[in-house]
């Protein structure tokens, strides 16, 4: 088993965060302008109940994965929900528990606030990630729609 360290993002992580997030965006064939990179990084360090949070995964001191998550209100419960927005493991680190460790860390962070509903989405063609997700969570059967 690989020794994986999960911790909150720090300002000194900027270059590695950018590398990993860019690789994640590349996976989804997405290109974002520089101002969005800057805004996302700023928001990750902005205090506030509903501001996004970030965790980084390290193996032997090298950044190999990241996740962004955020809390939001629900009309169905007193506690907030936690949306795990982005999850990425460097291809060289896949299959070594990085994704599962990041998901578990988000679950633990949410639990500290009394949040029990942690959820996320992935594309239906993301077979590798879905194998992990099917193992660590339940598939709800809901289908996403959006208005673009």
From TrEMBL:
UniProt keyword list: Acyltransferase, Transferase
Residue ranges occupied by any N-acetyltransferase domain in the UniProt entry: 4-148
SUPFAM superfamilies: Acyl-CoA N-acyltransferases (Nat) (SSF55729)
CDD domains: NAT_SF
Listed InterPro entries: Acyl_CoA_acyltransferase, Diverse_Substrate_AcTransf, GNAT_dom
GO molecular function annotations of the record: N-acetyltransferase activity
Protein name: GNAT family N-acetyltransferase
Originating species: Aminobacter carboxidus
């Amino acid at each position: 088993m690989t020794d994986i360290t999960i911790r909150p993002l720090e300002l000194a992580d900027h270059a590695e965060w950018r590398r990993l997030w860019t690789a994640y965006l590349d996976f989804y064939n997405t290109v974002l302008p520089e101002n969005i990179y800057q805004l996302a990084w700023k928001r990750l360090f902005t205090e506030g109940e509903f501001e996004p949070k970030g965790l980084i995964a390290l193996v032997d001191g090298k950044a190999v994965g990241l996740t962004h998550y955020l809390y939001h209100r629900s009309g169905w419960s007193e506690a907030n929900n936690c949306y795990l927005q982005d999850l990425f493991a460097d291809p060289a680190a896949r299959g070594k528990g990085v994704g599962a460790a990041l998901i578990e860390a988000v679950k633990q962070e949410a639990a500290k606030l009394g949040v029990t509903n942690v959820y996320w989405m992935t594309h239906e063609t993301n077979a590798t990630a879905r194998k992990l997700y099917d193992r660590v969570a339940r598939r709800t059967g809901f289908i996403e729609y959006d208005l673009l």
